[in-house]
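Hey there, shall we discuss this one?
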Amino acid sequence: MTRYICIHGHFYQPPRENPWLEEVEMQDSARPYHDWNERIAMECYGPNASARIMDSDGYIVDLVNNYAKISFNFGPTLLSWMQRRQPDVYQRILQADKMSRKRFSGHGSAMAQLYNHMIAPLASKRDKLTQALWGLKDFQTRFGRDPEGAWLPETAVDVETLEILAELGVKFTILAPRQCRRVRRIGDTDWIDVSGARVDPAAPYLLRLPSNRTITLFFFDGPISQDLAFGDLLHRGENLYNRLKSAFTDNGRDWPQLVHTATDGETFGHHHAAGEMALAWCLHLIEKDDSVQLTNYGEYLDKQPPVFEAEIFNNSSWSCVHGVERWKSDCGCNSGGRPEWRQTWRAPLRKAMDYLNDACSEIFENLGGAYFKAPWAARDAYISVILDRSDKNTDRFLTQFAAGPLNADDGTRALKLLEMARFSQLIYTSCGWFFDDISGIETVQILQYAVRAIQLAEELSGKYIEKPFIELLAEAPSNVRGNGAWVYEHYAKPAQTDMLRAGAHYAISALFEERPEHYSFGAFEAVCETMKARSAGRSHLITGRTRIAFSTTREQAQLQFAALHAGDHNVTCGVGFFHDMESFRSMDDALDTAFERGDITETIRALDAYFGKQTYSVQRLFRDEQRKVVKELLGPAFRAAEASYRQIYEANYPLLNFLDWLSMPLPEHFLQAARFTVNTDLVRLFQQQDVIPEQLERLTREADRWGLPIDRETIGYLAAEWTSGRMEQLAARPSDLDLLRSINATLVCFNRPPLELRLWKSQNIYVELGRKILNKLTAQAEKARPGAVERLEAFRNLGTLLRVRPSALEDGVGKGKLNRLADLGNIKLA
């Protein structure tokens, strides 16, 4: 009897976008990466799209797309970010679903997900429906087909949610074994109690719903999934393979068995380094084993309809043994990192968000009828605009759902209503409650969504709903930052943006970098109408007019501004709405006169007089540009500090040599100067277009000699980025022997000191390029074409340095070569 194996990965990150910019801002905790999405993409999402199969010596012989062989779902908001910021990985994920349809009898491996990871049992029926419709529409738009299955966030389930999914055509979902209450064979009358995770996971189960609809449930293997996430199964691919096979038994199972696991997709590479390689090798072993068959849920369900039916525990989940209490109370479930902390803040936070959602729903209900024929139907369909904010698509949507003709102002108000409704969904993203304190970045993120929802609600309705919201947050005690109200005021509210702040961002940044006539930052676009710049020594002043447009709501404003950099770290900017040329010229002339006299104090007074309270500092810049501006402002101080460290290091170098000769400990203050200087030079080296191998060699020798701790992660990140950039150049100019030799000479130095290098991008480029040109290079070398031998030797040497086996890429080998090597027992997970 056939035995089946299916591995499911739930790939998800909470939405991290700034609610006004619609882009993810810099997150320092993710350094050296820009943000956590980028970091995890580099550690997990990208590597799983091209996982390495390695030989016994640790050299790559093949790249495989893991997604094409497993079952998977991606959070819609994560895919939206990936489409913008990691388009190559995004396309490989979409391609994997197409590949899986060929592999699994027409059934794609990708599953849908409720839109922004809201805990469904805690949501209203209307919100559940919107979450399901948005998630399914997002899936259909991206993958080009209807989903067969849908993932429930945290597998949190109730019958009402399953009714909605079944009504929308979803065939199955995946649950944890402890969520099953009782089962019976279809046709039997007696139920079997399987509470306490005693359900047999090797079969699908039919759930009969009150509406007489049905949906199939797959209860994953709990012990294997737990060990996969938290144990050592990913230390080697064989570990996982053997554990999966051990779950089969002939004892009492008279149907084709399905052994299946479900875990966070980030397990494969982020939580477990090189986990994607272990997964790839496990999948290869399964494919080579004639006693088992790799499958996905859709294919298995098609071949093996349920012979059992089940009932579930309502309001249950996979990550809270208390049901869904983790997202509304201090149930005791937490990350375990700070066991002394309490989560009594969860209940007040839930109460505050419920209040805000209800207030926004009332406003939407009361005002929506003036703009939409059916306001709630318009909200359900708004996902089509979220997916495509082009003017043409937005116009089509408004025409379809508007109650009548809308002028520009009405169209903006209609879009603001829908944006308010969107953010009143995003405030429920589950990660806001999952972790240990209300001051964590995930909770601050949903509080920023609350700020945006409140801003829109108050503007549209004239009602003041923020004060009761803050009062509710004040009841949420933080373990480290007072209470939720403090966190809201200090961490979330400062992100609030309007057209004037957007104008200030444009003006201040223009002080330090010339802007094009059309300049975009996030969802904003600035069109420069006029700008005048003056300089006096280190002081700079600009004045001008700009038109700012906000794409999500189509708001526009014509602004006038003035920005002054006095030459130190202080920057002052004033922004106001443009009214007429006379007042603008008056402002411009007054500032011009004071600045030309060199009277900075009077210039600031004039700026304050014209703009009043509408003045801004560097603090109000958006985070990424803020870092660039602060770096420019503090450049002189940074350069002076660097010169001091460098002078200490270089001036005392003979002394260091002397002490080293005597085998005496080196003074700590000298070592600090040496550590700073060497690390600074290494960072700067990889920020150049051309890395000089001799310089890299010298710096690594210095680090070795003095035992200097190197920032391996940051320098490794920069080195990997430099290498992938050079490999992209090589892909465009594969016959460039000098470029080949330059890359090789630099890579030779990478192992001294060993850096935390993630070279998968460069390895991908090499493998793809090798499959295109290696046969040609070999043929040219055999014919003794000029330079061919040198190019072939250099290209093969590059493969060796990148830990790729060039011979595995020749003769169109790929997977066939892999299988031949595997038959000889030569391949293993390095």
Notes: The CA atoms of residues 23 and 162 lie 33 Å apart. The chain is about 50% helix and 15% strand. The first helix runs from residue 36 to 49. The first strand starts at residue 4 and ends at 11.
